[in-house]
Amino acid sequence: MNQIKKFAEEFFKNLKCEMAWDGEVLVVNKVPKGFEDLFGKSSPYRLSFVEHSNQEVEFVGKGSLMLVAMMKYLEGSGKATLLRIDFDVNSEAEIRKRIGLKNCEIASLTKGYKNNFFSRFSFVTSFNYLNESERVVSEIYIHEGKVVEGDLNGYTVVDGKNLSIDNEKVKRDYLVAKERVVDLAREKLEEVSLVLKKKAEIEIVRIGEHYDKALKELGGDLNGKLEKIREVELELRSCEEKNRDVLRKKIERLKGSLVKAGNDEAMATVEREKEMTIRDAMHKHSLNVDRKLVNTTVIYYPVYSFKICLEGQGNSKRFIEVNYDPLTKSFSGLDCEGCGKSLARINLCENGHICCEDCLEKCGECGGMFCVKCLRRICKVCGRKLCKACVKMCLGCSGVVCATHLRKDCVSGEDRCVSCLRACLRCHGMCEEKFFGVALDGSKVCAKCLGMEKSGKVLERVFSR
Ligand SMILES: [Zn+2]
Ligand SMILES: [Zn+2]
Ligand SMILES: [Zn+2]
Ligand SMILES: [Zn+2]
Ligand SMILES: [Zn+2]
Ligand SMILES: [Zn+2]
Q1: How far is the CA of 445 from the centre of ligand 6 (A)?
Q2: What is the arithmetic mean of pLDDT over 212-231?
Q3: DSSP string of 245-298?
């Protein structure tokens, strides 16, 4: 009942009629000519959803003229209705409120919007059985390819003129909606089928009894005859010799009538009739489900898009594009570039990545704030995380080190990490192992010190002359 009421209300609302309630009566005015012609009466209509005897009020319910006219009208209007929701949202305030800027600020913001939509499909499912027809109206809302609990109450809906429909998307939505409608009807289907099955079974038993009786009356009680033959056969086994002939004849006679009963044409006719009656009964108890799409409505709504320029520490800058869907109240394009989680507060890494607080860390060398992706390299000596600018490379082992752990080889002058170098105890410089040699006093010193020692010797000789 309520569904029909809702359906009628929605129907006239979609036709943009004037509507008002007069107690329990829905008064509808300014109905399109097309519908008036179909119904055969001009508006205003006074509609009641309960049966009554008032001539001036149209009853709207199962099988009523008004409901039939509505269905016919909808079937004829295969085109999708377009609506647009007007959201009363200050989108800029919304985004400033939702984004807690942590270590950066908005340098500029431009806003725009794109249209997104959801679709609504109205189905009428009819269950036809035992001369009855039950109608169920279902409205399915689909958003982003998924069934959603929908209701347009509370939204300002306007005519969606000047909008065009993405037919492919609507078709995909339709398939999802249809699946849901089939699901919704399944319970009812099973329930009705079970009732019908039980009723049919009772009917078939009754038919069986009726025809068995008819067969017996035709003298075709086969079971009775077989039973009788068995009895006589038993008797024959135990009887005296002189009675045997009589019994044998009796058996023959019984068997003869058995063949006669089996071949009897009248009985075959009765059997055929019985089968037909059972088939009829089963057909009468069958359930026929009919499903019709009566209306498609595409409801557009704006998704706000923002182009934001963020400015953070260390002169870092970043342009981001954020979408705000007022229907789901969700943001897109606001995910941490470190871990992928949705951001409630934006942090800006010095290389311009947006990230969450967990993903923002200090560079162990320069102290700048970076996201985890920018701090992937660590010094192999001290283990500190390093930003790109603070990464040093050892030319000997190709390892990554921090500035503190990179030294100049005092012999070759090339950069080496401290693990590739050895300290010379004489000059306190560092150089690669291969540059060490044994000094005059037997200690191992670097090539530089060895050279000094050698030239010292030469000089000593020069001066001693
Ligand atoms: Zn993160
Ligand atoms: Zn750094
Ligand atoms: Zn970064
Ligand atoms: Zn280090
Ligand atoms: Zn090295
Ligand atoms: Zn040295």
Answers
A1: 5
A2: 75
A3: HHHHHHHHHHHHHHHHHHH-HHHHHHHHHHHHHHHHHHHHT--EEEEEEEEEEE
